[in-house]
Design goal:
- This protein is an all-alpha fold.
- It folds into 2 domains: 43 residues; 37 residues.
- The chain has 4 helices and no strands.
- The longest helix is centred in the N-terminal third of the chain and has 44 residues.
- The N and C termini lie far apart (53 Å).
- The relative contact order is 0.07.
Length: 104
């Protein structure tokens, strides 16, 4: 079996490196998304079911202060309208024993 020229070997290794870096970036994005989902779930859980009313109130007040400046898209503001108004609607939330709704 003939050996490939060094230049061709280097080109193949560079392509493999590029593919591996892309795969690693995809894994990093997935991990980051998972962290955000879990953190959001924790925040919503504490707002909706916390036995500590004072903590829930402080958390809700903080979200009402911070979210308007953080959300830039109208669609995102609509998603958080219940939190911004102070009326958290439990019927539209996913519970731990309920499978996620399509599109979530």
């Amino acid at each position: 079996m003939a050996r490939l020229p060094i230049e061709q070997q280097i080109a193949q290794l560079e392509e493999r490196t590029k593919a591996l870096k892309a795969r690693m970036a995809k894994q990093d994005r997935a991990r980051d998304t998972r962290r955000k989902i879990l953190l959001g779930a924790l925040v919503l859980h504490r707002l909706e079911q916390s036995g500590d009313g004072e903590f829930s109130k402080r958390l809700s007040d903080w979200l009402k202060r911070e979210l308007p400046g953080f959300l830039t898209r109208d669609e995102d503001k609509t998603l958080f309208a219940d939190l911004l108004s102070g009326k958290v609607d439990l019927s539209s939330k996913v519970t731990p024993n309920e499978p996620p709704k399509p599109g979530i």
